[in-house]
Amino acid sequence: MTPARVIDTQRLSTLAHEYEREILRFHRDLAGDRGGIERIRQEVEKAAYAEIRVDSVGNLFARMGSGKYTIVMNAQGAAGAAGMIYGGRLVHELGIYDDFTLWVSSAARLELPILKAAGIDPHCALVAEPTNLCIKMREAALEGFLSESHPLVEAAISTYETLFELPPILSQSPSPTGPLGVPAIAFGPGEEGAETVPTRHLLKAAQFYAAFPTMFVDTMKRQ
User: Domain count of the chain?
Assistant: First the structure.
């Protein structure tokens, strides 16, 4: 699963660690009483997203890139949001652009009608929720659970192995809200229900979210 496109993993790791204090501060704010859409938007605006939308119920969507393959990342929880939004910042700072359109979302409930109403028609979704840095394969609309041979899962495995030089832990896990309607996986820092999130999880998640779009494009082009 070696990708054709080489990502400078050392630069990516170095910059993620340089942002450590900012990521931790943002996570603390979201987990405490300074969370909310305005705090999220404030951080998104630092990351040079090309477009920011907030719908009538307060869901935020921010776009980066304008390529062929549309990827949506949706944050579930403070840790996922912190890692995801800084993942986008790493994409911009390091110029890790490819043939993708990346949308990051703060929607409390990710559903296809919500995405369609926002004008987003994704090829895949990545849910940034606590998985202890394991990859959870969700259900697609007609395919049942995804398998390791699915391009989305292949891209996630390639991302993990390229960044961390270890094989990831994978599982098939249903979405709490049911199938999204497009292929989806979950990956994120911390464990479900845990009160604290290791700093290394936040930094690794940010790197994963930054590298994944390019890995997904590469995988799709090799199909």
Answer: 1
